[in-house]
Amino acid sequence: MRWSHRSMSYLVGWGGLTTLLWICVGIPAPAGTAAEICNLKVVTDANPDYTDIGSLIHSATSRWAESKDKCWILWYWNHIARRQTAPMVLHGRELTDPIRQFNDYGYTMCSTVAGVNCGIWGAMGFDVKFWDISLHTVPEVEYGGRWHMYDSSLSAIYTLCNGTTIAGVEDIGAEGACAASGGRSEPGHVAKYHCLTATGAQGFLAGCDTIRSLDDEYRCFNPRGLKYRYYLNNWELGHRYILNLRDNEVYTRYYHRLDADLPTARAQGEGRANYRADSSYFVPNESNGQDPESANPRYRVRGNGLRQWTPPLTAANLLENAHAVNGLQACEPAGVEPVQAGQAGEITFKVEGANVITALSIKARLARTTPNDLARIALSTNNGLTWKDVWQPQETGDLRVELNLTEPVNGAYEVLVRVTLQSAAAPADMRLSAITLDVVTQVNSKTLPALRLGKNTVCVAAGDQSRSIVLWPDLTTPRYKDYVVAEQNVVQPAQVGYQSSLCAARAGEESYVVFRIDAPSDIRSVTYGGRYYNRGAGAHIDQLHSFDNGKTWACSYSLTSTAPPWDVLHYEKTTDIPAGTRSVLFKYRWSAAGAGRDVCGLYAVRMEAAHRAPAQEQKPLEVTFTWNEHQTDYSTITRSHTQRVYSLPCSYEIHVAGADHPRMESLRISLPDQPSGGDVAAAHGSRDGADSQGAGRFQDRWVTYGKNLAQGKPYVCSVPSRDNWEAGDPAGTILTDGIVGPPYTGGTAYRHGALWNKGDAAIVTVDLGHAESCAAFRIQAGGYPWWDALQGEVQDQVEVQTSVDGEQYTSQGSFNFQLRWKDIPVNETWPDEESMCAPNYLLLPLQPVTARFVRFVIRPQRFLSVSEVQVLDSITFEPFDLKIALPDGTDRSDITQYNPRARPHEPR
To answer: Which of 48, 361, 374, 763 is the most buried (most CB within 10 A)?
Structure first.
């Protein structure tokens, strides 16, 4: 593993002043916040809390009253949280756990995010369905007495002809008619005329990964190609984001990847020579062994984290910072040495990622006096069940160790690092004087806590003050045996399909696997469960646990239903644990009577033990947000704000200025030995500029467009369209046919419009037939080069002129081709690559104007493609609140509160 020193420069060098308001809640501790904080979260009111499934549901939906609104807002946030690309495959299956996916990855295909949606809806108590529909996959959710389809893969939703009820799968491709089609009945009516997330009727999807027409959508929903997967929901739940911060530990999450420019970056597979990545900065996709980002680098999903910890090795805090100490003692001024010569001692440290770990760096200083003195460093990624030696010295003297490790830790969330010391003659002959443990993590940049223009509220909170140990074994490979302490009659299927990962080796006999968690302190609670496959007649699956090493077992849950769907999620939690318990066994037992051996088994299991954290001294926590503030000329200025938090929970405000929503850079949290200075009421290292002071919270808008008066109306064009790339307008109708082109340019986009080159200076004059009140004008335009309006690149000019008599024209101004994120209404989706290369631009006159003739004076500065010109009779903008709910003091991390109800379904 190699560190990017370039990235570390972001942590220093800012000045200025930020408006700051304290809204602290809770009782302040005498001297600040604890030096170890367990289950820490830092969230804002700009996007949901992805800590656990309960927090996600609460933050995104709790302030919405109706089920339809809750489902819509989840669809909105899922559009942001993931991208349509090669899905992330872990443990032999596409990753559908929403919390793991949204925190660490974000790479989903249709079936992946359909399963993610099923998991979220199921946790909310809704019934769900999982559909294959002609080379595509979508989910359905039931509320209000009917089924509704939300496609988070292509970011598409449809209504019935009433324009309000979200359509179901079988509605979208069915034959139908209404005023939108002129009363003409045709197959796929809903798909073609009632998509809420399209450029318009018979147009193109607006928020997907590429050019996709509504005709293509009808073909997906063709009734002959619908396959309801009654036997499967493809869902997964159980993961939660666990962030425990210890004394002298710093965790910085970057909203971009840190290996893009490293000399150690390598091309990721054939045909991807232009994309390079360092394997220490990503978890490879099991489907191809490559960086999952490489399939679609244009999405910029992957970020990285750097977590740095130097545990103090002093007598005062050695036991609090070490995971376990055996046969070693603290020595002066700092360090550890054997208690007795000739006997080996061990000190174990726990390295945690919070996000998934991609690499680990170990830097240590040891003193080895003679060749007979022994030292060893070993790693475990299964809580000490197995160990791998990674260092053993040959030389003597003052030893400086620097290990950069990827393969042994890549994909883990917690790693134990054990240092073994044994001196031959005197204890002081073999000594560890210092150790630093740093990890690189992979993060989903789209879901990190965000800031927006204006006032942002930040909430820093913490859950139960217990440390956690989690086992999540991969049941699809022989590696699962590294976690198992006992098993009987167990085999893995030849292929990973819709059936289980572990099943019976011999039909009709009982099968089980047993796992163990050993904790360094008293266990306070255990939570365990998984995803189960229970199909055969008489089949059952049991969850059991034991606190006396298997002498007695308690059965917490039995699955006896064999009705489909056959992938059942279930978790149980127990706090009824004998005092002094530091070890627990988990048994998963199944059998299917006389049925076949592969009709019952386990897809996946997850076990967590919460154990007591030692008492700690009190220290303040520091939280630093860094962002790039957009200027009017599209340049950026780096700003940051550091807040010292003395009491939890705590809320405070950060005010962001600039011309647009900021581009986030990093989020740094730490329990430093030496605070950065300043008083609790002072903002240090924060944004400058009086323009931010007193700013209110940014106000989103919902837009409603009126009737297009230009649709179907004749027009004349002063310069004929060119025919490059199949473009053209031979019939003189394409610009007012009501079909707005795709939001992507290039490829087949040009065939849907007229095309002019630089210097053509075309004038399109539309005759509305009689004088009309014109409230707004629109033009859908893209071209080559593929200029992005959100980057201020578009140089074309289009002026609108109006006339009542066709003789005297009045200018209504020119379209603004320099767009900003803040101007996009919440009900308009944008392409997955987050660009505006072919949007439908809007021009608003100061007030509605009366006109019969409307001119679009087009002055291209490149090849400019125009698919449609529009004149609207009305347009309204309404204030809209995304209604993010911040933490309210309720702990929602208990997964057992969100066990989905797998209602029985019947095959079709």
So the answer is: 48
**For residue 183, what are the contacts with CB-CB under 8 A and spacing of at least 6?**
177
Q: Which amino acid is at 653?
A: E
Q: For residue 364, give both structure tokens.
A: 């240590």
Q: Domains of the chain, with CATH numbers? A: 53-228 (3.10.620), 307-444 (2.60.120.1020), 466-612 (2.60.120.1020), 707-873 (2.60.120.260)
Q: Which residues of 801-824 are buried (b: 16+ CB within 10 A; e: fewer)?
A: bbbeeeeebeebeebebbbbbbeb
By the 8 A CB rule, do 419 and 364 touch? yes
CB-based contacts of 74, cutoff 8 Å, min separation 6: 60, 61, 117, 120, 121, 150
Length of the chain: 908
Burial of 288 (0-12, 13-18, 19+ CB in 10 A): middle
Which residues are within 8 A (CB) of 733 and not within 5 positions of it... i.e. 6 or more apart?
Answer: none
Closest by CA position to 107, among listed 342, 363, 300, 396: 300
What lies within 8 Å, CB to CB, of 713 at 6+ separation is 736, 766, 767, 768, 769
In angstroms, the CA 220 to CA 173 distance is 8
Q: What is the pLDDT of residues 89-134, one digit of tens each?
A: 999 999 999 999 999 999 999 999 999 999 999 999 999 999 999 9
d(CA 254, CA 908): 48
Instruction: List Cα–Cα distances, 108 to 96, 119, 785, in angstroms.
Output: 9, 14, 29
Distance (Å, whole) CA 779 – CA 798 = 9
- Which tens digit of pLDDT belongs to each residue from 133-182? 999 999 999 999 999 999 999 999 999 999 999 999 999 999 999 999 99
Edge to edge, what strands does the sheet with 388-391 contain? 324-326, 345-352, 414-422, 374-380, 388-391
Residues 6+ positions from 578 with CB-CB distance below 8 Å = 547
Rounded to a whole number of angstroms, the CA Rg of the chain reads 30
Determine contact, residues 76/84, Cβ cutoff 8 Å: no
Q: Which two tokens stand for residue 747?
A: 């490829």
Surface-to-core class of residue 580, CB atoms within 10 Å of its CB (0-12 exposed, 13-18 middle, 19+ buried): exposed
Provide the 10 A C-beta neighbour count for residue 781: 28
Residues 6+ apart with CB under 8 A from 779: 798, 815, 840, 841, 843, 856, 866, 868, 869, 870
State yes or no: pLDDT of 19 exceeds 70.
no
Residue 172: helix, strand or coil by DSSP? helix
Consecutive H or E run containing 345:
strand 345-352
pLDDT level of residue 7 (50, 70, 90 thresholds)? very low
**Which residues have CB under 8 Å from 275's CB, separation 6+?**
267, 268, 291, 293, 294, 297
Residue 105 forms beta bridges with which residues? Answer: none
d(CA 618, CA 621): 10
CB 9 within 8 A of CB 258: no
Residue 465: Cβ-neighbour burial (10 angstroms; 0-12, 13-18, 19+): middle
Widest CA span in the chain:
107
Terminal-to-terminal C-alpha distance of the chain = 52
Helices (H), 25-167: 53-61, 67-81, 98-104, 110-123
